[in-house]
């Protein structure tokens, strides 16, 4: 017990002491995100949407946003549609108040998270990105939805808030730089019930498949793959 206490105190002292090694100012490395959502993603067609006041009020004034709602005709149907919402937030100079985990935004909008996990989604022939998958339910309406999100830095993509924080600390210690982060959220409602026209009913599994395919197709359109590095580039067709 005494040994564990000594080790914990040593780690704390090392962490506090490292503060004095940090440079007084930081150069900013820009995120590899593209802050313009495409008008179409294969068979999906997008329409720009205004960011909700709840979300805007929760973040710093110099935060940038892009949001679109995408619709497509459900394959093998004549009059049914599928829907996906895509949302990008790019941090401003105040990193602590202009970007955070999307779980906070969902809670502010009245959603309760009922399941979460990390998984990987392929975005090219040999490359996958880590994402956080959330299943949530609105406390008033009962609407369920599936959301996938990830953070994009200058050369790093991560699904974890804490791994992003560790990356920032190491950058400041080793290079004296800060990277501007963006988070991308892709969400689709779980359409259930008998009277859902014009939306197609989908199970959670089907909703996951729709979102995963959409992310694979939109990734290159919203990322500077040259900046991220060769492994992120799609192979020429």
In short:
With 237 residues, this protein is an alpha+beta fold. The protein is 30% helix and 32% strand.
Characterize the structure shown.
With 237 residues, this protein is an alpha+beta fold. The protein contains seven helices and eleven strands. The strands form two sheets. Strands 2, 3, 4, 5, 6, 7, 8, 9 and 11 form a nine-stranded antiparallel β-sheet that branches. The longest helix has 19 residues.
Given helix and strand content, the structural type is alpha+beta
Question: Which stretches of 5+ consecutive residues score pLDDT under 50?
Answer: 18-22
Largest sheet: 9 strands, antiparallel
Strand content: 25-35%
Count of strand segments: 11
Quote the average pLDDT. 83
Write the layout of secondary structure elements.
Elements: H1 2-17, E1 27-29, E2 40-41, E3 44-48, H2 53-58, E4 64-73, E5 81-90, H3 95-98, H4 102-108, E6 111-122, E7 128-138, E8 144-152, E9 157-158, H5 161-174, E10 177-179, E11 182-189, H6 204-222, H7 225-228
Parallel strand pairs: 1-10
Antiparallel strand pairs: 2-3, 3-4, 4-5, 5-11, 6-7, 7-8, 8-9, 8-11
Task: Give keywords.
237 residues, alpha+beta, 9-stranded antiparallel β-sheet, 7 helices, globular
């Amino acid at each position: 017990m005494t040994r564990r206490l000594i080790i914990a105190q040593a780690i704390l002292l090392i962490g506090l002491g490292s503060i004095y090694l940090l440079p007084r100012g930081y150069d900013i490395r820009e995120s590899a995100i593209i802050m313009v959502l495409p008008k179409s993603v294969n068979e999906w067609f997008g329409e720009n949407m205004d960011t909700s006041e709840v979300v805007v009020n929760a973040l710093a004034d110099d935060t940038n946003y892009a949001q679109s709602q995408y619709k497509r005709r459900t394959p093998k149907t004549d009059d049914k549609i599928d829907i996906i919402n895509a949302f990008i937030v790019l941090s401003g100079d105040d990193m602590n108040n202009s970007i955070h985990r999307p779980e906070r935004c969902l809670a502010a909008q009245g959603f309760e998270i009922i399941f979460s996990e990390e998984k990987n989604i392929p975005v090219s022939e040999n490359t996958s990105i880590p994402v956080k998958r959330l299943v949530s339910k609105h406390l008033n309406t009962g609407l369920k939805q599936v959301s996938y999100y990830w953070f994009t830095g200058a050369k790093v993509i991560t699904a974890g808030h804490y791994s992003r924080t560790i990356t920032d600390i190491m950058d400041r210690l080793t290079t004296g730089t800060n990277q501007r982060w963006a988070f991308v959220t892709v969400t689709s409602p779980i359409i259930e019930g008998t009277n859902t026209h014009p939306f197609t009913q989908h199970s959670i599994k089907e909703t996951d498949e729709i979102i995963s395919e959409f992310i694979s197709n939109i990734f290159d359109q919203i990322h500077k793959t040259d900046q991220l590095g060769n492994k992120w580039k799609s192979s020429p067709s």
